[in-house]
């Protein structure tokens, strides 16, 4: 069977789990490529966006709020601090720990990452209308919220 139109189509190609996985693979590639274009990665975005939303925080609080494991958080903070996108300073309330803050350069980088992310979201959702995009996002949120509650793995705010 050299003609692809003659190949049997498995019912598994219509399963929501398979469709979600395949779409997630495309989404991951698109976003990673976008972040790479501005010399960043997903963890960078999550830390910068979390600091922008919640303000300065300890590494532990950043990990909880961003959903990044402590083992990855240290390396991510080190990378961002080397680039002067975040700043670490002793916590005035507990000098044994550091507080991480967003710098002006970090805010500029966050805006670049948000621009890349918006472009990649547009590319991912290109075949959907505005209303379909909104509904699709609502449905994905509903699924994720349900499974996060069941597993107790939601990201803290």
Report on this model:
By secondary structure, this protein is mainly alpha-helical. Helices cover 62% and strands 11% of the residues. The chain has six helices and three strands. It has a three-stranded antiparallel β-sheet with strand order 1-3-2. α2 packs across α3 and α3 crosses α4. The longest helix is centred in the last third of the chain and has 22 residues. The mean pLDDT is 90.
Q: How is this structure best summarized?
A:
This protein is mainly alpha-helical and 157 residues long. The protein is 62% helix and 11% strand. A three-stranded antiparallel beta sheet has the order 1-3-2.
What does the secondary structure layout of this molecule look like, with pairings?
Elements (H helix, E strand, L loop, with lengths): L15 H21 L5 H13 L2 E2 H8 L3 H13 L3 E6 L2 E9 L1 H21 L5 H22 L6
Antiparallel strand pairs: 1-3, 2-3
